[in-house]
Amino acid sequence: MPVLGKLALTVALLTAACSAPPPAPTATTPPAAVAADWSPAPVVPLPSQPPPSLVVDAPLPEQLAMGLVVLRYRAENLRIVPVYGPAALDVSPRIGHIHVTVDDAAWHWADGSGEPLILQSLPPGPHKVWIGLADPTHKVLDGKTVNFVIPVHSGHH
Q: In Å, what is the CA distance from 10 to each residue of 5, 16, 20, 22, 121?
């Protein structure tokens, strides 16, 4: 068969395959029955939402010994995104960000990345970091304080 004939046959087969009706769906288990802790996709508006909460891990001792503080956190029932202002209160599922204060400073910073907090160059001794889960208007919805000690012989990262 000439090359053009093979090409025409291939195109005809592909066209027929692409225009065929999709196979009938098979019975599946409803998503709610798959896992009790499965939450809805964060792209569908929710009629009601449980209150948001914050979970923060303690820093690892090996990192503290190097003078490095890495705090992993996650929000439950709230997505961390860098979106602010009163109009964002109507977003569903709920969105927000965190506020961070180190050692009771008179100031804090806001972060909407959802990435772990990394602090370095703190002097040896006891420290605390407060993390507040906030809505887009900066109203704090939940907060956690993490206490830790930077050892005296810590190196610099």
A: 9, 10, 16, 20, 65
pTM score, whole prediction: 0.69
Closest by Cα among 96, 103, 101, 61 to 81:
96
Number of Cβ within a 10 Å radius of residue 110: 14
**Residue 131 contacts residue 56 (beta carbons within 8 Å):** yes
Q: What is the pLDDT of residues 119-155, one digit of tens each?
A: 999 999 999 999 999 999 999 999 999 999 999 975 5
Note whether 76 and 42 are within 8 A (CB): no
**Cα 2 from Cα 19, distance rounded (Å):** 26
How many residues would you count in the chain? 157
Helix (H, G, I), strand (E, B) or coil at 5: helix
Closest CA to 152 of 93, 65, 89, 88: 65
User: pLDDT per residue over 1-11, tens digit each?
Assistant: 554 454 444 44
